[in-house]
Write a structure and sequence with these properties.
Largest sheet: none
Distance between the termini: 28 Å
Oligomer: single chain
Radius of gyration: 18 Å
Structural class: mainly alpha
Shape: globular
Number of helices: 11
DNA sequence: GCCCAGGTGTTTC
DNA sequence: GAAACACATGGG
């Protein structure tokens, strides 16, 4: 077990789950709301995203048709609390245009094809695409983010500067034998975020960390 | 005032 | 490819 020495990707999951419990992600009511949230949370605190989504709901604009119908500068005003609002207004419209044209086909497309299609949409990069694939459409892709790089580089499992695809491949490969990969990938990423917000921060709080016994970085913050 | 936050596109080398 | 930069609000 992971009580002593280094963690693996598999044992760190067990430890995080025991520490924090199930996270019940994604924080959003519908697949479409999850898609919107995935764009709005790009390099942005979730509390700010919630305000922007509340604005969309207030204006009855949480649908692809409504977002495409509203002028870009009006949409940007509604998105203002989430930051980068001009950029995100354009990205959200691009995603909605794609969704309008492809929503019917999604359930019949295989995951590789779907991922390729999402990555071709303006403003949808690998992390946003994988958020949507995993949390909105329940496809078995592992989401890599800045928190994942920080935690697992501190644990000594990765360097941290590997390419996105390299890390996604690593995590998916290590967890490939799990019976329900969608549920595990969902829970694991959520646990990484939870752990990063409270404990594995830029300045780590290793004295509170459930992984401290296997984490070389605990020394750095122990004084 | 400064750092940080669930990235991505563009430009440049 | 990969490094540098723009994009912006709100909390600690």
């Amino acid at each position: 077990m992971a009580g002593r020495g280094r963690y693996t990707i598999a044992t760190a999951y067990t430890a995080l789950l025991r520490c924090w419990g199930p996270q019940h992600w994604w924080p959003g009511d519908t697949p479409f709301e999850i898609m919107v949230g995935a764009v709005l949370t790009q390099n942005t605190a979730w509390t700010n995203v919630e305000r922007a989504i509340a604005n969309l709901k207030r204006h009855r604009a949480l649908s692809a048709r409504a977002i495409l119908a509203v002028p870009a500068d009006t949409l940007a005003e509604w998105l203002r609390p989430s930051g980068y609002f001009n950029v995100k207004a354009k990205r959200l419209k691009a995603l909605c245009a794609w969704y309008r044209d492809n929503a019917r086909r999604i359930r019949y497309m295989d995951t590789v094809e779907l991922r390729h299609a999402l990555l071709a949409v303006h403003g949808i990069g690998p992390e946003t695409a994988d958020d949507i694939l995993l949390y909105a459409w329940e496809r078995p892709v592992f989401v890599i983010d800045a928190y994942t790089r920080r935690l697992f580089s501190r644990l000594g499992i990765i360097d941290g500067d590997e390419s996105y695809e390299t890390l996604r491949g690593l995590f998916e490969n290590r967890l490939r034998r799990r019976r329900d990969r969608v549920a595990v990938f969902n829970e694991y990423h959520a646990l990484i975020v939870r752990h990063a917000k409270d404990v594995c921060r830029p300045r780590p709080r290793c004295e509170q960390c459930c992984l401290r016994r296997g984490c070389p970085s605990r020394v750095a913050s122990s004084e």
